[in-house]
Specification:
An 8-stranded mixed sheet has the order 1-2-4-3-5-6-7-8, sandwiched between helices. The chain has helices at 2-32, 42-45, 90-98, 125-137, 154-165, 181-193, 197-212, 221-224, 246-255, 273-276, 278-292, and strands at residues 50-55, 61-67, 74-79, 101-106, 147-152, 169-175, 233-238, 260-265. 44% of the residues lie in helices and 17% in strands. It has 2 domains: 1-32 and 181-218, no CATH class; 42-179 and 219-292, 3-Layer(aba) Sandwich (Rossmann fold), CATH 3.40.50.1820. It is globular and about 80 Å long. By secondary structure, the protein is α/β, with parallel strands linked by helices. The longest helix is centred in the first third of the chain and has 31 residues, at 2-32. It has 11 helices and 8 strands. The protein starts with a helix and ends in a 6-residue tail after the last helix. Helix 1 (2-32) crosses helix 7 (197-212) and helix 6 (181-193) crosses helix 7 (197-212).
């Protein structure tokens, strides 16, 4: 009897462990393969928009829209979040263009129309932003223009990593960025699936590394943010963000060096400040980039 009991316990434990691994592997697959949607052609969206492509350092072709403006004050790369495309940030880009900035909107790897099979949750996406900056630097209409980056959620984390690496980026705005990939994995498990961070978060990250072929556990903007100085940094975060809690922005701010700013937005959830208060959002971002970026010479 005792033997049968322990055999049953062992089999039950093995089944539970197998189920845990299978669920973690499935969630890693889902997280690294965002659902795709194809943006419309530029001419169907706005007459001034141009369809563009550019290549990343690891050989992927990314698709985007370039939105010129006469005598641009500066140029901005605008980077979307996980599971989004450039379309979701079109109105924000329109507002920034009305303030005198030339805009590059693009789809991250494995999103929208861009190449790539797996998302790395901001780790390799930082190189996508760097490739976009190089595209703007090489554009004949933008000679002498300073370049800034604005990223939201995963795009914000990638923007911090990219700015730390790329000296051509003159200033950065990170909205709802995470401090470490573990933090966003833990927050997502709690907020979306009501699952405990342990043991799921480390297992999902482990399987994510196996699927993407990259050490995505090293995706830690909090370790890179100090390298942005002396270029200006603006962090934006909603108090009601359940996916990536406000503590992430506070950790990033503490790790960064001056000049840095933190706008904590009351009564706002994840990555939604630009939707809920578009006028104030645009005014704050414009003021920040207006101070931070050297105006283009005529």
């Amino acid at each position: 009897m005792r033997r049968a009991f322990w055999l049953g316990v062992g089999l039950g434990g093995a089944a539970a462990g197998g189920a845990l691994l299978a669920l973690s592997a499935y969630m890693a697959h889902v997280i690294t393969r965002p659902r795709r949607s194809q943006p419309a052609a530029a001419r169907e969206v706005a007459a001034e928009l141009e369809d563009v492509t550019f290549r990343t350092s690891d050989g992927l072709t990314l698709h985007g829209w370039y939105w010129p403006t006469p005598q641009a004050r500066a140029a901005l790369v605008v980077a979307h979040g996980f599971g989004m495309t450039r379309v979701e940030l079109l109105e924000l880009a329109r507002g920034l263009r009305s303030c005198g900035y030339a805009i590059l909107l693009f789809d991250f790897r494995a999103h929208g129309a861009s190449e790539g099979r797996r998302s790395t949750m901001g780790f390799q996406e930082a190189e996508d932003i760097v490739a976009g900056v190089h595209f703007l630097r090489g554009h004949p209409d933008l000679r002498g223009c300073s370049i800034g980056v604005l990223g939201i959620s995963m795009g914000g984390a990638a923007a911090l990593l990219a700015t730390a690496r790329e000296p051509a980026i003159g200033a950065v705005v990170a909205d709802s960025a995470f401090a470490t990939l573990h933090e966003v994995a833990a927050g997502g498990l709690r907020a979306l699936y009501r699952l405990p961070p342990f043991p799921f978060a480390p297992l999902i990250v482990h399987f994510g590394e196996a699927l993407t072929g990259h050490r995505i556990a090293a995706n830690r903007p909090v370790d890179a943010v100090a390298a942005i100085a002396p270029r200006p940094l603006l962090l934006i975060h909603g108090v009601q963000d359940r996916l990536i809690p406000l503590s992430n922005a506070q950790a990033l701010y503490a790790a960064a060096s001056a000049p840095r700013e933190l706008w904590v937005v009351p009564d706002v959830g994840h990555a939604s400040a630009h939707h809920q208060m578009p006028d104030e959002y645009l005014a704050r971002v414009d003021t920040f980039f207006g101070r931070a970026l050297t105006p283009a010479r005529p």
